[in-house]
Amino acid sequence: MNERFDPARADSHWQKVWDEKQCFRADDASSKPRSYVLEMFPYPSGRIHIGHVRNYTMGDVLARYKRMRGFEVLHPMGWDAFGMPAENAAMEQGVHPGGWTRENIANMKAQLKRLGFALDWSRELATCEPDYYGHEQALFLDLYAAGLVYRKESAVNWDPIDQTVLANEQVIDGRGWRSGALVEKRKLSQWFLKITDFAEELLEGLDSLDKWPEKVRTMQENWIGKSQGLEFSFDLSNGDRLPVYTTRADTIFGASFVAVAADHPVAQRAAQGNVEAQAFIDLCKASGTTAAELETAEKLGFDTGLTAKHPFTGADLPVYIANFVLMEYGTGAIMAVPGHDQRDFDFATKYGLPIQRVIAASADDADRPFTGEAEAGDGICVNSGFLDGMSVDDAKAAVIAHAEAGGWGEGKTVWRLRDWGVSRQRYWGTPIPFIHCGTCGVVPVPKAQLPVVLPEDVDFSVPGNPLARHPTWKHVDCPACSKPAMRETDTLDTFVNSSWYFLRFASQPGDRPFDPAAIAKWLPVEQYIGGIEHAILHLLYARFWTRALARIGMIEIKEPFASLFTQGMVTHETYELEYLDPLTGEKSGKTTYLAPDEIERVGDKVYWRNLKNERVPVKIGRVIKMSKSKKNVVDPDEIVATYGADAIRWFMLSDSPPERDLPWSEAGIEGCGRFVQRLWRLFGQYDAAATGEDKALDRKRDQTIAAAAEDIEALGFNKAVARIYELTNTAEKAAPSASRSAAIRTLLLLVAPMMPHLAEEAWQAMGEGLVAEAAWPPFDPALLVEDEVTIAIQVNGKLRDTQTVAKGMDKAELEAIAVANNKVQAILSGAAPKKVIVVPDRLVNIVA
RNA sequence: GCGGGCGUGGUGGAAUUGGUAGACGCGCGGGAUUCAAAAUCCCGUUCCGCAAGGAGUGUGGGUUCGAUUCCCACCGCCCGCACCA
User: Fold this and answer.
1) Which H or E run includes A518?
2) pLDDT reported for residue A289
């Protein structure tokens, strides 16, 4: 064996061998138990970043481990290839989105290959290719036929200069990111998927997802937002009726005003002939569209002059148009109870409206003033007529019963979840397969004519949607009446692409989206791994899409991902250089960020060399998510070139628990590189002919096998790594013996999923075949149990001594040993213990 | 603003889920080897204290024989908020 392990040679050699032997191709016909391991597929931005490396390394370790445990493993990879960055590149660099995307895919695929992932590349797919999105169009038509697709008017961010719809992230302080124009809200007729039809099942289905993180289930539950409340109508002073929805019917006696959304019909009518009202509505439209912006914005309102009759007190409540009321939720109108809702409180304070207490801790507390904020908590009703003294829950029921008996309102379930708007007024997406005909209306494209292919000849030099202004593409004959008609020029949200790709991986027939038999074999995904940022949208949409396909009988499964793991981000420290004022040479207060390869480390200080080759001190900034704008990025390719694929893979798995953030460090990756070499030297000491037994080492070996398996299955890679270090330390120090050779061989198999190149190289040197085809080492359960344990001896809960005893010693014996202990005797000084607590094999606590 | 999460030595973290806090890694200090360096190996490394001993898991309270773990309040940081993926 060579002195040093040479990753540059070994990595590419073994990657070639795995490719040639098709080691990681999933066999659909296999009789082995199956395992589908999937990581969220990447957007082909151009380069793999460290976050991808972390994500795919975790999946790879699990996939390789499962193979060693005798499973037929499906571990595929593809590309989430539609989306805005390709169009931005087209506008900024004059390249075609398709060419740009495909080139990025080629580059990133080469990068992934250099990391040695055990992927089945024969199933690779890219969502931007017609043989993917054509099937998506077919599925969309199936959902349309099932009544799950419809059109309605919906507001978008409109940039009047660029003549385009902007994504929320493209709107900065109310202005278009490129044009700087004030963004307007504009209503467009758009396509929607009826996810709300599935609200109840998506909510209930969460209970069955016991291998999902609790936090993700809670977030989805809150997102779906089932609420029970009261819907009732106010009689308005102009004779109209105004329906409102409230979840706090118990606080109805505290209602001091009524508020409607800016786009509510009542607001629209109020604006007719009223310049000020119209101005206020325009102001609301000009503000941000996101929920976060609406809720953090100052509460503003406009008094319509109308009043609403309170159903119990008969009081006339003013009706406001308010910027914090959402048209999409409930009825778009609310009864406002300032005492017990913070938004209403802020509003009432600003406009001098009454704030009445109707919930208090007790009846004595009924007139306690508020201390600057609303009290949304529990209590009993006060100042509330017939509700006085009731609990919040009882009062809710009583008001609803009263309303239903009186015929002026009813109990109602309302969902926060809204239907999914899938229309995008963009080129680089799946064309929506519909045709608009002057005679027949909206007509689906016949399936035989699919795919509706994106035209390649598009022009990004002028503003607007290139698909809509393409000279010929949209002009077609109506499939129904053959008269000239127009194609739909909206494309589908890219979340649709990622809502079924995991089904397409199981089989890729040319004539249909998937083969149900293959889905029955492989799905659900046994382990899905990706970022927490997808906790709600992607994962909820994929769940919905799966259920929708199940409902129309295309597949059997209802939940796509049996187990979910959300990994943390990769972070890095930032380097901030303060600009000096060019005139005075003084610090200017402005800073710029430096990249890791622009700085120089001396001890724990960091410097930058200026043009005169002088060292300028650099401030080490916060450790944050790697991002180009902060320049705290490292390129995986450079790391692989310097340290090898195994070192970076090992770094990704070491130290930080996978669900938490992983701080990148130069020292850390160097340590990983050293460990690869250290293992190589140890593997070189393997001696098949060694004899002699080392019982302690045998025990350590088998304990490590069992623990590492448990850790990997729970995705606790950092713990598995720590165990492997321990066994390495022990094996290195042990004298040569058959046991030591067995430990070394075991160690090689344990690291095989994590450092596959090193493992192959050493396995070959030991005269074996491919470690990619090797089995996980067996262990003897009898060896796992220690026969001696060290117990703690405490007095009043404080550790005073420890003692090694036989495992399983009974309570009386342990107590006797502890009481007789010198240190215990010294503290007791003759007194008898008040109480003794004995936990066998753990501790004895003496209460003095 | 609303929803979700996290907080342990210089540093990343571990702790059979209420039972010996700091496993293992990084860094640092000392030593060996070397003409020298790199690499490698050995020893040490929570804090205060010469020691005996004491303190200690973001802060403040509580429950318990015993709390990193459970409860309450607060502080700080992170993620999501429906057209980024």
Assistant:
1) helix A516-522
2) 67
